[in-house]
Amino acid sequence: MKALSLLVIATLTFSTVSMAEIHGAATKEVSEVKANIFTQNNGMVYIQVENPADSKVRIAIKDNAGVLLHGETVKKTKMLKRFDISNLPAGTYSYEVNSADYSVMKKIEKK
Q1: What's the confidence (pLDDT) of residue 31?
Q2: How many domains does the chain have?
Q3: Are residues 79 and 40 in the same domain?
Q4: Residue 7 — pLDDT band, cuts 50, 70, 90?
Q5: Over 59-89, what HEC string results?
Q6: Is the confidence at residue 83, as pLDDT, over 90?
Q7: Residue 37, class by beta-carbon neighbours within 10 Å (0-12 exposed, 13-18 middle, 19+ buried)?
Q8: pLDDT band with cut points at 50, 70 and 90 for residue 51
Q9: Which of 59, 64, 88, 100 is most buried by its number of CB atoms within 10 A?
Q10: Residue 41 sits in the same domain as residue 61
Q11: Which UniProt keywords apply (predicted)?
């Protein structure tokens, strides 16, 4: 009887650990932010962001001297931001998208 009780306890403990591991693996989500920065000939710059974890994402636009021209923090799963740069003076501008685990920067020259 004592051996049977120990077997039941060992089985329940093993089952609980196994279910916890399975449950943890099943609920693990991919949290990688992806961003695409691109231009069109109409004087527009587009920043497309996919944020599956719905974490905070920082968007920044800086001039060649590093002066911040635009900065915002967003928390959306998907978005497309449009920036009109037609009125900016000629020069090189950096567009940055950052989150806790992701960073991308692209320099765009406006003529």
Answers
A1: 59
A2: 2
A3: yes
A4: very low
A5: EEEECCCCCEEEEEEECCCEEEEEEECCCCC
A6: yes
A7: buried
A8: confident
A9: 59
A10: yes
A11: Signal
Quote the CA–CA distance of 45 and 65 in Å, as a whole number.
19
Residues 39 and 23 in one domain: no
CA distances from 14 to 7, 8, 68, 88 (A): 10, 10, 56, 65
Amino acid identity at 44: M
The structure tokens 């740069």 sit at: 85
User: Counting runs of H as helices and runs of E as strands, what totals does the chain give?
Assistant: 1, 7
Give residue for tokens 């959306």: 76
Looking at the structure, tell me whether residues 74 and 93 fall in a common domain. yes
Is 75 found in the same domain as 51? Answer: yes
Residue 59's CB: how many other CB atoms inside 10 A?
20
Pair 53, 20 in one domain:
no
